[in-house]
Specification:
Elements (H helix, E strand, L loop, with lengths): L11 H23 L2 H5 L9 H13 L3 H23 L4 H22 L6 H11 L7 H28 L7 H21 L3 H11 L3 H25 L9 H28 L4 H10 L4 H16 L4 H11 L1 H16 L12 H5 L2 H16 L6 H11 L12
């Protein structure tokens, strides 16, 4: 089955799924942008007291957390094969195209991380993407088996650790230990607040507290990223992400993946809420076991997107968001900078989790409006153009040429 598109043509389904993925990612990233980092991982740490906060946590946990980031990683692997195949078809060496792209992406990611936000994913993609190049010529079956082995290695280890922890009887914290933890959290909040005075202050804070974090991400969660990229390569080469499979196959895959995934997350959310976010319940059910559903949910959401948005005005807008996904991803952080840094909006730490999510729908609307408007006039998104130009060390044509 042919899976490589003709040169200079777009694969619409890839763009649509990518657009949905980058929009979904912002639904959870807004919390990391607007309040202390630890609250991103454990909600009660900050800005979490009202029913609205709990509802928004539950909805994001059930439908979004981990799965849309995984979907984005899957699409990165698929796009890697697409770019390399087209380079080879044009008579260029694949590695001479791929590695400059990853080097340029790493530069963007490091600027993003050190000056703007701790949650950058681009650095990890660039570093792991360099490793993933070694697998790009493998067949879909081999890629799938390799990805499955990596998932089992990483998630199996995490599950084993969860089981061991659950069998240990840990003594309850003393009042003194609780007070120390609260004091430590208060100090962290104050320091992160100071870091949001300006990008320069953020740089100083980051260099002082976590200077090597982008590079340490490779041994920490790079195995999962690599597995997701390999899965994306396999799904692209098999024709799944191109939308060439029979509709009944997409229906079955969506049902077989999304039903158990959503069922688990609904039951886990109910258990956590019932336990009032006790760490003994929260950690295994939210921070550990759901990892098994990250690739499952990514595949299911991809199948569902292909079923629902093959054509139409909304599909075209999602595709435009996907074509400018790099710009949209980084522009979300720029929106966060304007809202939360002291030299602009100064709202960092002032909004609860539920209030922060109210920012999401307007940003989604902005993505759906500006992306097609821009692409009607220009060939690439602004940051896509910068990435392409930097990768090739030559300014690329930007203005869209009207058809004769």
């Amino acid at each position: 089955m042919a899976t490589t598109a003709p040169p200079n043509t777009r694969i619409e389904t890839l763009d649509i799924i990518r657009g949905i993925a980058v929009m979904g990612i912002f639904s959870v990233n807004v919390v990391g942008l607007g309040m202390v980092e630890s609250a991103y991982f454990y909600p009660p740490d900050y800005g979490f007291a009202t029913l609205g906060d709990m509802v928004m946590w539950a909805l994001n946990f059930i439908f979004v957390d981990g799965r849309f980031r995984s979907l984005f990683s899957v699409l990165f692997g698929a796009s890697m094969v697409l770019v390399i195949d087209r380079a080879v078809a044009a008579g260029r060496k694949g590695w001479k195209v791929h590695f400059p792209r990853m080097a340029a992406l790493l530069a963007f990611g490091l600027v993003h991380f050190y000056f703007l936000w701790w949650g950058d994913i681009l650095s990890n993609y660039a570093l792991v993407g360099m490793i993933a190049y070694m697998f790009v010529r493998l067949k879909p079956k081999t890629l799938t088996l390799t990805a499955a082995g990596l998932f089992i290695f990483m998630y199996g280890g995490m599950t084993a650790g969860t089981i061991v922890q659950s069998t240990q009887n840990r003594p309850a914290l003393t009042a003194e230990q609780t007070a120390e933890n609260e004091q430590r959290l208060a100090l962290r909040i104050e320091r992160e607040r100071e870091a949001h005075a300006s990008p320069a202050a953020h740089l100083n804070f980051t260099l002082e507290t976590q200077p090597l974090r982008p590079f340490l991400s490779v041994p920490q969660y790079g195995i999962e990223t690599l597995a997701l990229m390999l899965l994306g390569m396999a799904l692209y080469k098999s024709g799944f992400l191109s939308g060439t499979w029979a509709q009944r196959d997409y229906v079955r895959i969506a049902a077989y993946t999304l039903v158990p995934m959503l069922l688990y997350h609904v039951l886990a959310a109910a258990a956590v809420l019932n336990a009032d976010f006790a760490r003994a319940v929260f950690t295994p059910l939210v921070r550990m076991l759901p990892f098994w559903f990250h690739p499952v949910g990514a595949i299911g959401y991809a199948a569902l997107a292909i079923l629902l948005f093959r054509s139409g005005a909304l599909a075209d807008r999602f595709a435009a968001v996907g074509r400018t996904a790099f710009s949209n991803y980084l522009c979300c952080t720029l929106v966060g900078m304007l809202l939360f840094f002291d030299f602009a909006g100064g709202l960092w730490g002032d909004l609860s989790r539920g209030q922060l999510w109210l920012i999401v729908p307007p940003v989604w609307a902005l993505m759906l409006l500006w992306s097609p408007w821009w692409l009607a006039r220009y060939r690439y998104g602004p940051l896509e153009w910068a990435w392409r130009s930097l990768s090739r060390w030559e300014l690329q044509p930007m203005r869209e040429v009207a058809a004769a």
